[in-house]
Amino acid sequence: MHNHDHHDHDHDHDHDHTPITETDEPLTEARVLEQALRELLDEKGVITAAQIARQIDIQDSKTPALGAKVVAKAWTDPQFKQRLLKDPLKAINEDFGLQISTPLELVVLENTADVHNVVVCTLCSCYPRMLLGIPPAWYKSTDYRSRVVVEPRAVLKEFGVELSEQMQVRVSDSTADIRYLVLPMRPPGTENMTLDELEALVTRDTMIGTAVPVLE
Q1: Do 140 and 146 touch, CB atoms closer than 8 A?
Q2: Does 12 fall in a domain?
Q3: How far is CA 195 from the centre of its chain?
Q4: What would the mean pLDDT of 75-95 be, rounded to a whole number?
């Protein structure tokens, strides 16, 4: 696991930070190569443009709803939570009647009263799409990818998350083989809420670690 623990930071916070924004990235070499490979596969008859379009539609149709269901169940079912932390995909497939199959390893990071987890992919935008859908633009931005590793508290503050100095901030860097999902803390005062009500508190950002669930 690639993670970085942050406690106290000596970064100069007197200067203003430009907030993380959802700006379009310029056309990169990787995107040019991807487009060229897609056209070559189509030309050779390996896969058609229509098949590629269907797969893109399937990916784009995925939302954070499944991730929210997983978190809500973990909040209310201690046995499921234990299995989720040990073997996430197996627990999710068994309890939700799914057949998610992937060579990638999924790791669930539990937030506690002492540790707050936040996820990044410093090289690109690796992300648990099977649970969260497509990543937000800011997650792919150079600004977020470069800054959250070195000054996570400042970045989280820009997202509206202010943590005490006693709270350990753990930054986990996704790789080509590993995807991370944050299991946020259940908010106090939700003891009598239904699963549907709990799911509504879980957003995409809470499962990345750039937000925390709160009661409206």
Answers
A1: no
A2: no
A3: 21
A4: 97
Coil vs helix vs strand at 177:
coil
> What single letter denotes the amino acid at residue 6?
H
Same-domain status, 96 and 141: yes
Looking at the structure, tell me whether residues 103 and 54 fall in a common domain: no
* Catalytic residue list: 121, 124-126
Whether residue 134 is contained in a domain is answered as yes
> What is the per-residue pLDDT for 2?
57
Number of domains in the chain: 2
| Same domain membership, residue 121 and residue 75 | yes
Share of the chain above pLDDT 90, in %: 64
**How far are the Cα atoms of 72, 140, 180, 191 from residue 26, in angstroms, in the given order?**
38, 12, 26, 46
CB 161 within 8 A of CB 211: yes
Residues 207 and 168 in one domain: yes
At residue 20, the pLDDT reads 60
The pLDDT, as a whole number, for residue 184 is 98
Helix (H) or strand (E) holding 157: helix 152-158
> pLDDT by residue (tens digit) across 149-208?
999 999 999 999 999 999 999 999 999 899 999 999 999 999 999 999 999 999 999 999
- Assess whether 111 and 46 both reside in one domain: no
User: Does 48 share its domain with 79?
Assistant: no
3 state DSSP class of 81: helix
Q: Torsions phi, psi of 39, nearest 5?
A: -65, -35
Residue 56 has pLDDT above 50, yes or no: no
Q: Considering 37, 61, 85, which residue would you say is the last residue of a domain?
A: 61
Domain carrying residue 36: 27-61
